Amino acid sequence: MNDNLASLIRPEIVSLTPYKLQNKPSGAINLDLNENPYPPSPIVIKSLSEEIFHVNRYPNPQMEHELRKELSEYTNLDPENIFISNGSDSIIYALMDVFISKGDKVVTLKPSFKVYEIATMKNGGKMEHYLLREPDFRVNKDELVELAKGSKLLILVNPNNPTGNLVIKKDDIESLLSEYEGLVVVDEAYYEFCNVTFANLINEYHNLVIIRTFSKAFSLAGLRIGYALAHKNIVNLLLKVRQPIPFDKLALKAALMALKDIEYMKKIVKLIINERARLFSHLKSIANITPFPSQTNFILFKSSIADLSKKLAEHKIFIKDFSEALGNYYYRVSIGLPSENKLFIDKLKEIIKEH
Q1: In sequence order, which residues have a C-beta less than 8 Å from that of residue 158 and are 6 or more positions away?
Q2: Structure pTM?
């Protein structure tokens, strides 16, 4: 790179590592990204087939208004408490743009969703971690408050990714919101799989922001749309830093129609939860495998085998390796279709037997 150009680059950006998705062969079994293995509602599919003819035009603002109205009914909050954007990742970046400047302290869990750390570092913030420990991977509220002193943002993914558990109780979150002077961000990406939410606290605690997504329970990961729940003053701040056209027409339409078919979503979530219980039971029965209880659409497990994810990838089965974040040897497997989960278990048993 030209020396003059290099001198123009912010040092925070130079130190970042790009977030890369893994290339996979045809016919791969994708159990590494916590995707929903089922297609979206037939109503969504039909609406997209019709809307595709109109993608030559930008989204009409009325579409966002309609989606906020539907989300208002879904969340029992006013439309003014809802911020919609291009996936939860863009909401995270918007929060950092509003609140975090060079040198500001941000606290989050470890291990947890990596994007929070990337977004913090991008703005020159300093990330500190609350280490989650076995066997329950839960936080101690008093320890967390002490660690978070002097920070601007405290981020909790609940249920947490990759541990799969609820990290904090409602009584503790209310106490935390009262004691902590900064902004508390609770990521509820997996809310529909556990039905535990702090959304009812939004109007009482103005320093609370909740982030959700349509990627998981609603099967819309490929369209990238998410939303935040917050006090109207925070929503207005996020609107100031949002891109002029922060979502595409198909994503808006899909999210809107998905909310009109909640029963389909609930049916799919029930299938995944039932399959999660079956997969957990299989993992627990395998020697040298220790699965951890989950309230999401994935399971974290510990193994005695190094490079297990690479061994499975040789058979076109992809899971996520978390050994670097948690130590040897932790892996996360998403809940796939019953046939996919069976192939994963069968191949896992073969690898264990050969080891």
Answers
A1: 166, 167, 168, 186, 187, 188, 196, 198
A2: 0.95
